[in-house]
Write a structure and sequence with these properties.
single chain, alpha+beta, Cytochrome p450, five-stranded mixed sheet, three-stranded antiparallel sheet, 17 helices, 12 strands, 46% helix, binds protoporphyrin IX containing FE
């Protein structure tokens, strides 16, 4: 997954990719929407709530499929059935382009996400066992220890920037442990996270290069001296019966780092922001720590933060609308989870809700293989935080910065407790 703020960061950049309206787009479908900024800090109307911004659009009475002339021109699917229809047809809707405009999206070669069948399956099969429930279970004590060490660093001061001092560090440290990166390089890894958070189109190349510079030497070293880590295991892989190349292993690691970092950090930020505004919910979670793990699923539904593009491999029809070969369809996954037909009162966090599978981790062949790891990180982080930090509140609401885009999240989250 590509974090949008790493792709571009302003209306003007998206506007540079404005295209004329093609003749197959109906007039009532047209909206001006730059998904990189929509609902984020730069959005003058909805700054401060990415999810609410999408919900308002879903409820505005417009058609189920919209079209925007920004970011090279693309469709946007607004409801659960349509989002599901696209996700369920990888043979018709390619995931080769992972960001829009296509010129930028084509720069990425993440394995397995930017591959289509049948190639996709060869690489996914290598990855799934490396992130299995058993692997994650074995990491639980380590994750708890990391979360508690971060809490040790802030608890006495009575306040912190939750994002910089906790949410951004935890998933990176876990990746660090997965690939068994030398401890003395930890600081470099931390800095890299901030590069990965960079906010201009030019920083995309820098971001991929910084991750490449970090991982490529490890690949060479682990080929010579295999260990028990994820990279060593990957290098034993044989997609299609031949040895995996260093380049393929690098593209997998880049995907794992970016796919596992921004999503987990962003989810932690959005959930904790909501908790800071809702002390009753904090109390409810604190009262039953044994239930936090199972309750994370509803929190993930409500605070879904990923949006993904797909590209039509051939002409077809979607929601009665002609779609041409090469047309891009953007899927804000949160709008699946906010569809009243599936989830009554969808904005409410309701732990008693009838369990209907949500799509915060995707659906179909690309469904997130890191789901168990991501959910476990979030559950254990919440457990540790709520067990040790007393009731917390927003410290400086004015400094909170919400990001929209293909991976939404929170940039600053100042919390205070007594
Ligand atoms: C809260 C945390 C996470 C969220 C919300 C999330 C979300 C997603 C989503 C929505 C997809 C599907 C994208 C698509 O269909 O285009 C996906 C795919 C993927 N995710 Fe995650 N993810 C999370 C954590 C992780 C972690 C921790 C890892 C691994 C370290 C990971 C690795 C991947 C990979 C490799 C894919 C591509 C799978 C494929 O193409 O078959 N994710 N994720």
């Amino acid at each position: 997954m590509i974090s949008s703020w790493a792709v571009m960061d302003s209306y003007s950049e998206a506007t540079r990719y404005r295209v004329p309206v093609p003749d197959h787009v109906q007039a009532d479908a047209i909206i001006e929407l730059d998904y990189h900024t929509f609902g984020g800090d730069l959005d003058p109307e909805f700054a401060g709530d990415h999810q609410i911004a999408w919900k308002a659009l879903q409820d505005d009475g417009g058609p189920d499929l919209r079209w925007t002339p920004l970011n090279g021109g693309h469709w946007i699917a607004m409801r659960a059935p349509l989002i599901g229809e696209v996700l369920d047809q990888p043979e018709l809707f390619s995931s080769r382009i992972l960001a829009l405009p296509k010129e930028v999206g084509a720069m990425y070669r993440f394995i397995p996400l930017s591959l289509d069948p049948p190639e996709h399956g060869l690489f996914r099969a290598l990855l799934v066992p490396l992130l299995s429930a058993k692997v994650v279970h074995d990491k639980e004590e380590h994750i708890k220890a990391l979360a508690n060490a971060l809490i040790d660093g802030v608890i006495e001061q009575g306040h912190c920037d939750y994002v910089a001092e906790f949410a951004n560090i935890l998933p990176i440290s876990i990746f660090h442990q997965l690939v068994d990166f030398p401890a003395e390089e930890r600081e470099r890894l931390r800095k890299m996270a901030y590069v990965a958070n960079a906010a201009s189109a030019g920083s995309v190349a820098a971001m991929l290069k910084s991750i490449g510079d970090f991982v490529a030497p490890l690949i060479v070293e682990r080929r010579q001296h295999p260990g028990e880590d994820l990279i060593s295991a990957l290098l034993k892989g044989e997609p299609g019966g031949r040895p995996i190349t260093d380049e393929e292993a690098l593209h997998i690691c880049q995907q794992l780092f970016i796919g596992g970092f921004h999503t987990t950090a962003g989810s932690l930020g959005l959930i904790t922001l909501h908790l800071a505004k809702n002390p009753d919910l904090q109390r409810e979670l604190r009262s039953r720590p044994d239930r936090i793990k199972s309750r994370v699923n509803e929190l993930m539904r409500r605070f879904s933060l990923v949006g993904i593009p797909r590209t039509a491999i051939r002409a077809c029809t979607l929601a009665g609308q002609e779609i041409r070969e090469g047309d891009a369809v953007y899927l804000p996954l949160v709008l699946f989870n906010f569809d009243e037909q599936l989830y009554p009162s969808p904005l409410d966090v309701n732990f008693e809700r009838r369990s209907v599978p949500h799509v915060s981790f995707g659906r179909g062949i690309h469904k997130c293989p890191g789901q168990a790891l991501g959910m476990t990180e979030i559950a254990l982080a919440l457990e540790a935080w709520l067990a040790r930090i007393p009731e917390f509140r927003l410290d400086d609401a004015a400094r909170i910065r919400i990001k929209g885009g293909s991976v939404g999240g929170v940039e600053n989250l100042q919390l205070r407790w007594d």
